[in-house]
Amino acid sequence: MSNTPRFDSVQCLSPAGLHRMAYAEWGDPHNPRVLVCVHGLTRLGRDFDRLARALADQYRVVCPDVVGRGRSDWLREPMHYVVPQYVTDMVTLIARLNPQSVHWVGTSMGGLIGISLAGLADSPVSRLVINDVGPRLDVAAVARIGSYVGKPVRFAGLDEAIDYVSTVAAPFGLRTREEWRELTEPALRPDGEQWVLHYDPLIAVPFAAVTTQTAAAGEAALWRLYDAIACPTLITRGEQSDLLSRETAEQMTRRGPRARLVEFAGIGHAPMFFHDEQIAVVREFLLQG
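The structure assignment produced for this chain is given below.
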C-alpha cells in the first residue's frame, strides 16, 4: 500500500457560484468502505496523513481541504465560510465517491460538519468520530482562536513557520520539532520570497461576525442535530481542552447517540491523531462496524 496520497478535486456550488474542493485519498480507490476525515478551522486535510496511513489497509480514506483551505479554491463571498456550506460541499464529495455509507472523523470544525451531516434524515454517515468539539463551545477558547485566525502572518522560512505554529497550536500536544515540521510544511504556500499559511484569511469574517444571539441559536441548532444522530458515535477529547468542556462532553454521552467518550491526557484542543495510542482508539472504534 502506498505511503503517499493521490490528489483530486470535486466541483461544488455556493450561492456565489462554483468552486473546487481538493482532497487527498489513500488506500484502494475501489474499496467500498470509505472514511472521510475533516480538519479544523485553519487546518487542512494533510493533518490526517498518519491516521490515513494507519487505516488505508481497511478503508479508502478521503481527506478534503475544506473550501478556503489548502489546495481548495477560495470562496467569492466570505460570509459563505460557514458550516451549512461545508456540509453541502461534503454531500457533493460523497456523491462523487459513491459509497453506500461513510465513516467520518472530524476534528473541531470537521466535527461540527460531521454532527450537522450525521444529524440529517437519511444521512450517509454510519459511524462518527467527533474530535474535541460539541454543540456548546467554550467562549474563552473561541476568543483564543479568534485572536489569530486570519491575521496577516508571514514567514521568512520553514523554521520561522514551525516556531509560530508550535506556539499557537501548542495544545495539539505534538512532542518533537520533527512532528511540528510534518504538521506545518503542508500548511504553507509561497508568497513572493516569503511563506504564508495555506488558507484564505477571510475565513475569519463570519467567525468575527458571531454575536451572543447567533451563537445561542447555533448551539440550539447543533443540539437538535446531535440529538437526531442515530449512528454509533465516539467523542475524543483532549483532557485539557478549552473548547469542549468535560461537562459538555459528558452531556453528549447521555443524549442523542449517547456517544462513548475517550480523553487523552496531556492534550488540549485538539488531539491530532499523530501518536499510536490516539490512532488505536479511532481504529478500534471504526472497525467495530
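Interim note for the steering committee: Residues 212-228 form the longest helix (17 residues). The longest strand covers residues 17-26.
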